[in-house]
Amino acid sequence: MALNLAIDLPKKVKLQLSQQLEDLQKVYPAYSWVDKDQYHIPIHFFAPHHKKEAIIQKTKDALYDQESFYLYASHLDLFMTNQIMIYVHFRREKVLEAIAEKIQDAFLLERKKFIPHITVSRSSTSSKQQYFLLQKKLERTNIDFEFKVSELILFDSVQTIKKNSFHKIETIPLQSI
Length: 177
Prior knowledge:
By secondary structure, the chain is α+β, with helices and mostly antiparallel strands. Helices cover 31% and strands 38% of the residues. It has one domain (2-173): Cyclic phosphodiesterase (Cyclic Phosphodiesterase, Chain: A). Strands 2-6-5-4-7 form a five-stranded antiparallel beta sheet. Strands 3-1-8-9 form a four-stranded antiparallel beta sheet.
């Protein structure tokens, strides 16, 4: 079992994002598209463990005074590793960056730059020409939504050969602003 601290999107926003991606999904049906019910913004992935309750408590303690905030989607982009990962990029949000830093500090982790994103698709790498064409299509895809974040979720992350699935195990409320 691996835990993932994340922001779960409201159902309305998941549907809105799914609709904004429909044309792109039709053009690239061979890509592995994430099911809209699995859309989330990962904050921290905890390696497989056996101390679930300790992680839950330490996370709650680190975030006890965090305020709610708004997130604004800005555009689609790519991460390139051994595969192509299409993701939704967000405008910077200081409260969210502070949350990521508090978690890194609470668990004595090396500080890394936090990039809020939603993975929407994965695919094997392609030729440079196909890659540049995909980039142009992503630039032309309008991604426009916003939502209030009033809670964080600890998910149990289950990996299978075909996909990952996430099951809520704990909700961490944020203070109202």
